Amino acid sequence: MINRELLNFEYDSFTDIPPCLRIPVLTKLDSSNNSLIIGHHFYNAQEENKIGVCTFSYCLKNNHYVNLPKFNFYTLIISNYHIHNACDTISFDYSFMKKPYINFNNDISAKSCLNPKFISLYFTQKTNRGPIFLKQKNRKIKTKSIDCKNRTCYVCKNNTLNILDNNIKCTFFDPYIR
Predict the structure, then answer these.
(1) Residue 71 confidence (pLDDT)
(2) What is the mean pLDDT of residues 112-126?
(3) How many helices and strands (H and E) does the chain possess?
(4) pLDDT over threshold 80, residue 158
(5) What is residue 18's DSSP assignment?
(6) How many domains does the chain have?
(7) Is the pLDDT of residue 44 over 80?
(8) Cβ of 8: how many Cβ atoms within 10 Å?
(9) Range of 115's domain?
(10) In which region does residue 49 sit, left (phi positive, over 0), alpha (psi from -120 to 50) or beta (all else)?
């Protein structure tokens, strides 16, 4: 249900961790996986200058977490992009109800980014794990935890849906910024 692995990439510990984006591609699309969502987030592995990735899948049809199907992940690590404002990793703000969000209308560091084309979730600590999805709408990004109807799956039993303040960030990339 949940897979964790380290990326085959080392970053310079004297610089910020580079923004990472990832796109899952199913090996085969058929009726057994046409209602699945594959989610992921990156995390600071806190060992050997490595970045980790956590992947998980959720079935929309049955409303519960399921085993990951066969798929490939394509990872983009942005270490030196020629347009500085096109990518960044920024912190979430927290609403009155303690729900994390990013408002690109208000965020000073993202002023030049009107509506990012690619976004990804990043945990600053290894112990914070999803499954958490990102919802993007009208220049806003919110985190979305899905309620599993199974209650006996690994995710529900291990209560891994906690979000702690200041431990999650969002990476964005908009290659169309000039």
Answers:
(1) 92
(2) 78
(3) 1, 13
(4) no
(5) P
(6) 1
(7) yes
(8) 8
(9) 2-173
(10) left
